[in-house]
Amino acid sequence: MTAVPRDQGERRKWLDRRPTLGSVAWIVQRVAGLALLVLVPLKVLGGWAFRQDIPFDSFLVRMHLNGAVDVALITAVAFHAVFGVRTVLIDVGLVRTARVLTIPLIVFASLVTIWGSVIAL
Amino acid sequence: MNDVRVSVRRFDTEAGRRVHGYDVQVSDTASVLDVLRSIVAEHDPTLSFRSACRVGMCGTCTIVIDGKEGLACQTAAADSAGAMTLEPLRNLPVIKDLVVDSSPFFDRYRAIAPQGTGPSHSVETSSMATGDCITCGACLSACTMAAVNKSFVGPAALFRGLRLVEEESAEDAASRLRGLADSSGMYGCRGHLDCVSACPKGLPLAEAIHKLKRLAISRSFSVVSS
Amino acid sequence: MNELNTDVLIIGSGGAGLFAALRASSHPAAPEVKVMVKGSFGKSGCTRMVQGGFNAALQPDDSPVVHLRDTIVGGAFLNNQELARVLTEDARERVLELSNELGVRFDRDAQGDSFDFKPFGGMSIDRTVHRGDLTGIEIVSRLADHVMSRPNVSILEEHRALEVLHTPSGDRAAGILALDMRSGDFTVVKARTVLIATGGGARMYRYSSPSTEKSGDGIAMAFRAGVELMDMEMLQFHPTGLLAGDSILTGSVVEEGLRGAGGHLRNAVGERFMSRYDPERMERSTRDQVSRAIYWEVDEGRGTPQGGVYLDVSHLGADRIASEFPGMTQRASLAGRDLTTEPIEVVPTGHFHMGGARIDLDGNTAIEGLWIAGEDAGGVHGANRLGGNGVAESTVFGARAGSSMAEAVTHNGMPEVDGGQVGAFIAVAERRLGEPGKSANPYRLRKRVEDAMWDGAGVIRDAAGLGRVLETLESVESDLGGVQSAGSRAYNLMWNEALNLANIVVVARLLCISALARTESRGAHFRSDYPEQNDDDWLRNVVLSPRDDGAIDTSTVLVELTHLAPS
Questions:
Q1: Which domains can be identified in chain C, with CATH numbers?
Q2: Does residue C157 surpass a pLDDT of 60?
Q3: How many interchain CB pairs under 8 A, B with C?
Q4: Is C259 noted as a catalytic residue in this protein?
Q5: For C252-291, b where at least 16 C-beta lie within 10 A, e where not — what string?
């Protein structure tokens, strides 16, 4: 039982950690969720500022009318939603359904994002 | 006969890490294991790999073939369409070439006390849990959670855990569920489903982990209220 | 070189090794147990590959006496009847222990109370306990889980045992010299008790079914250590090994269940040829009969392109095949065939070695401190093993050896090894590492042995053919002296193949010598120059004894018909 040197170096760990469909879906959903924490209040407050339900603020109004913010918001909503559906399917045990639907859901979210971006920009 | 260009990710303590290419001729029915045996017997006897039963029962020849975990003996060489890439399993230290140290896999598996102790107490037998895991390590290799969380016991251990929970007495099962109900156990799984794609036996690993989570909740309520 | 010592040293982690480890480690004195495995723990070997099941006389209308009768009749009365009796009695306890204490889940009948006993060849009452058709994986996995949980058991993985070591006075076994494959260093393990349970090795033939790491290490080591062997000519061929082209899959077993379910065997001209050999039972005849029939069909020119015969189950219905035999369907597809719609090609394949070391009822050999159990031991099955009795043998005798060894530890001191012997053995092993400039390729040499054994010491034998095999073995052994060198010592597969071949040559030679000695046909051993079974002269076992000068003494000993005699 001699100690035999092993390849455990840093690059080996980097080889092991790789993006897979499932891990990317998980990360995108969480990142999109965090983005929504910022983007949704921004959009809602901006709308209120625009209608002067809250005191007028030119920054908030500019953000509300900004096309790029809309694109970011639509992207975040679309992908957070479809990956959320995937997560719910897994959590209730419909694993095969979740796997089968993963690509179609990504396609759907992409189409929604493109459609929304065209309108917003 | 088929010509295959094989790239093998090799490692040993003297030459370090490198990728080695071989041009190999194998029969139409050859498996990836046949390719490896052909390389050692006829081309490069310094290549190291493992195998035993060659009929998919022992789980010894598990490697990464064209980016995906699989049993070398059960994977047709023809599936690589002439260009094959072979790598050792992930998440496990490499001893030499395609030979990995499987003790991190078995340490996790044994950490859940996998030895069953007696006849089944279960009335209902879940077909899910009676699948035959051959402890090949493919699931741990593919698991992107295991890559970052070294204390996560992994899909194979949890799969075994479910079968034990279903077989054991109510008290033993409840205590086992409590033991698995943290981030080293069932809650270390985030549903990436990489294990499900990798399992060469097609075992319902993610469903089993899901069932553990369900049981942990339902049984802990009944234990609390009793 | 590393040195270790232990109380109980077990070589092998199949049914025998694992059960021995369980028994020995649970002895009240809690001895230290080391399990040494050539490959991966709980994964190598053939117990794991068992598909049939485990025979045990547990049905209410069954009894060990009936099981014993079936076993002795199946063994053509060559069995050691006391060993066979122990097999049939203890098998029941082992099955109950596996099921009730070790977490093994066997299939139950429709009511769920009793085991599902399936019918199997040679059993007058259904007594084969099983789990689907993957009994071996379940048994070995559960045993391995338990063995690994014992605090007084440690595992030496990928350590191949090279030789049995004696004390300087030579009065008893003192341990094992092993090669740590991962580093290429030698390890001496001193032990108060040693068990050899490496699982024999029918892998000496062009077509063979066992796990590929097997190379007769246990039998070769035992013989070199001075242990007597018996029935070495008795090697069982499973009639249907898969022909899968030039692939290591060729030779793997196509399970008997396919014939049991009604599969047909046909030669190249489309004839169900079993009608000429056993018209009553046809394809469900005994393994040795079917093997010979196939061999003769091919020998007489009616073989398929790959040199076998056709096995066809397509008439049973695609759905039934796919649902009852998913493993075989998958295996056939790797061989390029669709089992549900077309025939596959099969050929007899070297499967199990009935012969082996002479032991007593607890696995003791004549050498103090050395036990042998499982396929490495001889006598239990006589001239032919019945399906389902193999895993029974390994677990029964592994358990008995384990208990016996743990008892012996309480009064055996830790032995000293003979340093000179260690040095000599290391020199021999080092030579197999090869030298630059030498060119013999052990893989190609092995193929020569496998082809020669198939042609001359296979299903059908005769004196001239056996003589030719012995000549080939001499020639290969001398070529083995000039093996090409390949890379470093660490995990050197070519070095290990040379070590494998050295042992295969030894076991093959012993088989041929024994086959030459038995001038009759019985069970798995068929001599075309002596085709009849001769009970008058040959109710005897052929015994091979090693002499100090390296020669092999051949003798025979009468079978003691303590329970049953041929009528």
A1: 236-349 (3.90.700.10), 429-532 (1.20.58.100)
A2: yes
A3: 154
A4: yes
A5: bbbbbbbbeeebbbbbbeeeebbeebeeeebbbbbbbebb
